[in-house]
Amino acid sequence: MKDLEFIEELKQLIEKEEMPPPAPMEQRWTACSQSSMSPASSSAEDDIFSWVGIIMHLPTTVARQRKEITDEFFHYRHLTQAELWDKYSAYKLWAKIEVPKDKDELAALQARLRKRFPVDAYNKARKELDPNRILSNNMLDPIFGNKWKSILRWLVSHFILSYPFYFWIHHMYCLLVNLLGASALIPDCTPT
């Protein structure tokens, strides 16, 4: 019954803080997963997991109003995170995780994920099965490791993302990959 207790406590928190709640409040249920990296992983076959959506719609095109709604969304998320997540073992879906820009927040996220998921085993499998990090991205690297590649991706995404520079770097990279004979690993770097 923790699923219903969570919703009750969430409603009380919303009322206490006098904040606009998301509407409608979305709650879904799912069976457990055998995958140890699933937020719904469990060794007990009859466990049920509940998902609660944190959604605030942006119906307006007015920048000031959109900013106010976005600020309320983050206030709501941070408040629920601080008050409820650990108490109810709540975790975001992987696709909903945003990499924090703040180093301390990133370290806290990494530590929290390590408590729940077999991060070392996951990184070992990544290193073994994807040594060139072809299946990685700027979300996985900071959360799970590969510090230097994540720094490079951060620099590219924050400073060097002008199209001509990115285009030039991409083509130089593809040229090197093709010269080294590794084009089969990177499908978008085939010779033309």
Structural features:
about 190 residues, 7 helices, mainly alpha, two-stranded antiparallel ribbon, single chain
In short:
This protein is mostly helical and 192 residues long. Helices cover 51% and strands 6% of the residues. It has helices at residues 2-17, 63-85, 103-116, 119-129, 140-144, 147-158, 163-179, and strands at 26-31, 48-53.
Task: Give a structural overview.
The chain is mostly helical and 192 residues long. The protein has a domain at 1-96. The protein contains seven helices and two strands. The protein has a two-stranded antiparallel sheet with strand order 1-2. The longest helix has 23 residues, at 63-85. The protein is globular, with a radius of gyration of 21 Å. Mean pLDDT is 81; it is low at 183-192. Keywords: Oxidoreductase. One of its GO terms (biological process) is L-ascorbic acid biosynthetic process. Pathway: Cofactor biosynthesis; L-ascorbate biosynthesis. It comes from Populus trichocarpa (Western balsam poplar).
Q: Regions with pLDDT < 50 over 5+ consecutive residues? A: 183-192
Percent of residues in beta strands? Answer: 5-15%
- Number of helices, where a helix is a run of at least 4 consecutive DSSP H or I residues: 7
Structural class: mainly alpha
Cα-to-Cα separation, first versus last residue? 60 Å
Alpha-carbon Rg, integer: 21 Å
Helical percentage? 40-55%
Query: What is the N-to-C order of secondary-structure elements (H for helix, E for strand)?
Result: HEEHHHHHH
Biggest pleated-sheet summary:
2 strands, antiparallel
Pfam families: ALO
Pathway: Cofactor biosynthesis; L-ascorbate biosynthesis
Protein name: D-arabinono-1,4-lactone oxidase C-terminal domain-containing protein
GO molecular function, one term: D-arabinono-1,4-lactone oxidase activity
